[in-house]
Design goal:
34% helix, Polyamine Oxidase, Chain A, domain 2, 17 helices, FAD/NAD(P)-binding domain, eight-stranded mixed beta sheet, 3 domains
Length: 535
């Protein structure tokens, strides 16, 4: 190396170090905004603080307590049938389907996609048809969807040992023997997808309530998904990593804590098809499921009111719900009297709110599931970071690590000649490397720096020090009880079965009733509750 080359190299290294330092300093100056949906209201309930007397009373036919997907579906069904109803939002409008906006940019703060609904998911297809998302043949084998909402290519990629590969199943550098085992597993899932029980129903269906109840399959719910894989001779590390990732992504827990039935249902239950998309396609929006939730709320015509139910009791004429909203940190209470109440809140909340759940057959000590905590972080980008090896940015970008689940790009669905100058990268983290209780305690005590370090880990793996210079804002949403974990035995939970069958003044509607925190399940119970309320 001659002297000039050495000086140029040394100068480049110094500039890189300086840039790295500047990026680090700029990164540290960004104070993330932290959001804990429901925490203040939840602690208010937990600590049994005194509420002022109600300042008003509202009369309606059906009151819907909670505005997540179950509550929204109930509202949509009731509204389309002309019923008189009122929705109480709960601690956060739209719950796990909520989103955020930064000027023209939308992004999710919760769920971000919906798989193509199967032929059994007629409730979902009815909603999508009403909203114009399905344009033709709504209940046929292959409906035609509005292409604006079908995820665009490139859909997903995986960072393996510093290199991107297409798709999320590890293939880069994986030995042929492991690839063969992957193929064997997916062929196995394809066979299960069409298999039926002795009752003639498919073994795995969305909604899961329509799945076969063939007792020959009951043993699948007695063991973990990992134990089932080992029993069936699946040992490839690449396959185990992927299946563990899927459980963390959908259920918030590792595959050794998830029921084998739930693990298999993840793959064998999906059978939706479209006339203008591949079978594996999903529906998505820049704001995740928030635009879909907003569309459901608007089409329902059911009025909404901010507030949270603190007590629901049965009366001689129906139900009475005591609700409160926080205004400038102070509670304002009101009563809602109705013939029926659709309790569309998580079951762990309902146990503290609804009087007489023991009479419904639910024992909190025996029947309450474990809840997985989640962290969702929105990184508002002033410029898109440069991609390594010029591999195109995908909608879903995953790093082969844990506990991160990768990040999705809010502007991916935009149709542009050039990439968007500004965007939002939404990073997801399932705190599955801790017990749920330990994770909640960590969430409670962690400072902004700890939270941003965890939230940004996958983005840093993808972009290194160049990430910081491109970020103008970070908002972190912490969901301490994001979803019920479908642990072994969840299918035989007698308390949940009792709540599913409740048909009195209080009707229960939440994905917790299925044990699977996904759109089709939540929507199904909202639909069923609305049908019972109408009857």
């Amino acid at each position: 190396m001659d002297r000039r080359s050495f000086l140029l190299s040394a100068g480049g290294a110094s500039l890189a170090a300086l840039a790295s330092g500047a990026g680090f300093m700029r990164w540290q100056e960004i104070a993330p905004h932290l959001s804990y949906p429901g925490r203040e209201e939840g602690h208010f309930l937990r600590d049994a603080r005194a509420l002022p007397p109600p300042s008003s009373a509202i009369e309606t036919d059906v009151v819907i307590l909670g505005s997540g997907i179950a509550g929204l579906t109930a509202a949509w069904k009731l509204g389309r049938e002309g019923a008189r109803a009122l929705m109480i939002d709960g601690p956060q409008a739209f719950g796990n389907a909520a989103g955020a906006r930064y000027g023209e940019l939308e992004c999710p703060t919760g769920a971000h996609y919906l798989p193509l609904p199967s032929t059994e998911s007629t409730h979902v297809r009815a909603i999508l048809s009403d909203l114009g998302i399905i344009e033709r043949d709504s209940f046929g084998e292959t409906p035609y969807y509005d292409e604006r909402y079908i995820v665009h290519a490139p859909e997903e990629r995986l960072l393996v040992n510093g290199r991107w590969q297409e798709g999320l199943v590890p293939a880069l550098g994986v030995p042929e023997a492991e690839l063969a085992e992957q193929r064997r597993f997916f062929a196995h899932m394809e066979r299960l997808r069409g298999q039926r029980g002795a009752d003639g129903k498919r073994l795995f269906v969305f909604p899961s309530a329509l799945s076969s109840t063939d007792m020959a399959q009951a043993d699948l719910d007695r063991i973990s998904f990992k134990a089932w894989l080992e029993r069936e001779g699946y040992r490839a590390p690449s396959l185990h990593w992927y299946l563990n990732y899927c459980c963390r992504d959908d259920y918030g827990a590792r595959y050794d804590r998830v029921s084998a039935w739930a693990g298999l249902h993840y793959f064998a239950g999906r059978s939706g098809r479209a006339a203008n998309a591949s079978d594996s396609a999903v529906l998505t929006w820049p704001g995740g499921l928030a635009p879909l939730a907003a569309g459901m709320a608007a089409r329902s015509g059911v009025p909404r009111r901010p507030g949270t139910a603190v007590r629901v009791r049965r009366t001689g004429s129906g139900v009475e719900a005591l609700c409160f909203s926080l205004e400038n940190g102070k509670p304002v209470t009101y009563l809602v009297r109705a013939r029926k109440a659709v309790c569309a809140m998580p079951v762990f909340v309902a146990t503290r709110v609804v009087d007489g759940m023991a009479d419904d057959g639910f024992d909190m000590r025996r029947h309450l599931p474990e809840y997985a905590p989640w962290l969702v972080a929105n990184f508002v980008m002033r410029h898109p970071p440069r991609e390594r090896d010029d591999v195109a940015l995908s909608w879903d970008n995953v790093v082969q690590s844990e506990p991160g689940l990768g990040y999705v790009v809010s502007t991916h669905q935009d149709i542009r000649m050039e990439p968007a100058e500004r965007s939002v990268f939404t990073a997801y983290v399932a705190l599955s490397h801790m017990t749920p209780l330990a994770a909640r305690r960590w969430m409670q005590s962690a400072g902004a720096r700890e939270l941003i370090e965890l939230a940004s880990a996958d983005l840093k793996a993808a972009y290194g020090w160049t990430l910081a210079a491109n970020v103008e804002r970070v908002d972190i949403t912490l969901r301490a009880h994001a979803m019920a974990v479908p642990a072994p035995g969840f299918r035989s939970n007698a308390g949940m079965a009792a709540l599913r069958e409740a048909d009195g003044p209080v009707l229960f509607a939440h994905a917790d009733l299925s044990g699977l925190s996904v759109f089709e399940e939540a929507s199904w119970w909202g639909w069923r509750a609305a049908e019972r309320a109408l009857a």
